[in-house]
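Lecture notes, unit on protein representations.

Consider one protein chain, 222 amino acids long.
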Amino acid sequence: MKLTLFALLSALFLPLAFAQDAASRLVYADFEQLDKDNRPLSARSGKILFESNAQNPAGKPVITPKMLGPQAPLTQRIGFEFNIPEPNAWAEASMKIVGLKDKGYLDDWAHTLIVKSEDMSSYSALSLEIGAAGISQVRVRLISEGNGVDAGGAFPEILLPVNNQLQPYRVPLADFKQPVGDWVKKKVTTERVVKKLTAIQISVTQAPSKGFVVIDNVAFEK
């Protein structure tokens, strides 16, 4: 049966069986906070960035952000439509959640965002609610940028199975591993990244693919 955008957005919210008190849970992004231009922010005013990249520059993925308002019993959520064409040996359409309010941009060719890091090593797991259509998994990465951790882009990650229902997941931080391959030139441990974390990235990496992803309530838990 062909899945529609309405079907996913209307999916029933499943209560978090692992709900914890505020002292042991840090909300990273619930997408309730907006900036002056009505763009979504993380829970502590970090930017939400949508990015795409591909092996074939002529076949760069198209990514379209979607802000989804409250629809009881669901709260405000964020999502993105994606279209990753072929031919592409690899490609990604990504949403990056920057944890803390940034310090602006450097005046360089890349227009680099100056971000602050934070030590998240006292937490043991990452939780989030996510659903998707057109794919069966997403890649979730822990990122540290601009704060002395050089992973050459190969940050610790997991591949998270998803389906067309908005569901809660809880992933131990110990499950995040740096990818293995000849292309990984710089080694970094998950522990080092977590001590200087700047962002969480959620990516679609299947090429070709077309669909959408909906995300809510990203948090760290003890």
